[in-house]
Amino acid sequence: MVLTKTQTNEQILLKQEFLATYRQKTLPVNALVEYIQVLYDCGGPNETEYELLNDALNYYRKAVPLDEWKEASRQVAAIYGEDFIDSIPGHAFLKPYGYAGDFSVIDKMYLKTTSTNPMLTNWDLFYHQHAAAAAVRNRKTFFKNVLTERAANREGSCEVLDVASGPCRDLLEFMDEQPKHNVHFDCVEADIKAILHATEINAKHLPNIRFYNQNIFRFRTEKQYDVVWSAGLFDYFDDRTFTKLVSRLIGCVKPGGELIIGNFAVGNPTEGYMELFLDWYLYHRSPEQLVRLAQAAGIEDASRIRVDQEEAGVNLFMRIQF
Ligand SMILES: C[S@@+](CC[C@H](N)C(=O)[O-])C[C@H]1O[C@@H](n2cnc3c(N)ncnc32)[C@H](O)[C@@H]1O
Could you give the domains of the chain? Predict the structure, then answer.
């Protein structure tokens, strides 16, 4: 249920005041927190308010020192109180499984679920309309297209290594949509709760999936794959860790196969929202940086490296051909 509260004259005035003074870009970050409080009291932002709020978030994240920005983030969370956990931003901020971007929050993004708490529904809708949320949904489509193309061009089983596989909604949709293709997935996932969830939703496809409940840094295999895929993992790594893992995964790709690594792009228009509302910080990278990292991981021939992006241009994919 979406809450449409009648706004008091005072609330309307407070919103207008923020809008008028924010345009001069001289306000302290507290003004943004107070504006979010007014939006909350009104039942959450409506669509006409999205643009200004996003704009303000991106402005302040650059204008404010990191310690003030993090304090503002805690103040925003306090506005929602104990109920915050019942929303997707609240789940992302509070990290009940101990880390950002867990399988549950990612699956809720895929399914575009909204809270049944009427004070939170509009905040979930606001969450889903962000470019970064669209990019996560698009990367699922991107992966399914890669699989379809690969599987169509080969006889026998197509072997895929899915690194940090999370909810495996992508696998479920691919196998439902393309039952004639013979694809086998080895999924390496550190969180057993993610594996249990993925097992449940993929119950009918389990003969095609094998789960390894391991940290990818400890995973060892002699097997080689047609596709090694990882999305939603490398953007948590600094360059050194990124390169180290890519150079390890290179050994897992068959001749003729491909390694594909997703990473959020520099210029992500949702960065301010992700940091303030979700306490979700990533290493954003440009296509040029991704090419340099692939080279640093041992791919000397640059013609084997390319960088693609999904529709929103927010999630990049470093692709290395073997
Ligand atoms: C943002 S989710 C992405 C899930 C999936 N790839 C997708 O795009 O739908 C990140 C996943 O990586 C897993 N993960 C994080 N660090 C890991 C590691 N070192 N080894 C294996 N899995 C890891 C988390 O448990 C989580 O399920």
Answer: 9-128 (no CATH), 132-321 (3.40.50.150)
SS (H, E, C) 240-295: HHHHHHHHHHHCCEEEEEEEEEEEEECCCCCHHHHHHHHCCCCCCECHHHHHHHHH
Any ligand 1 atom below 6 A from CB of 166:
yes
Question: Is this prediction's pTM over 0.90?
Answer: yes
Q: Across-strand partners of 228?
A: 161, 259
For ligand 1, is residue 104 a contact (CB within 6 Å)? no
CB 50 within 8 A of CB 123: no
Query: What confidence tier does 20 reach under pLDDT thresholds 50, 70, 90?
Result: confident
**Cα(292)–Cα(253) distance, integer angstroms:** 20
100 CA distance to ligand 1 middle (Å): 10
**Ligand 1 binding pocket mutation candidate from 102, 137, 140, 189 (most atoms within 8 A of CB):** 189
Query: Strand 305-309 to strand 209-212: parallel, antiparallel, or no bridges (unpaired)?
Result: unpaired
Region 115-119: what's the mean pLDDT?
Answer: 94
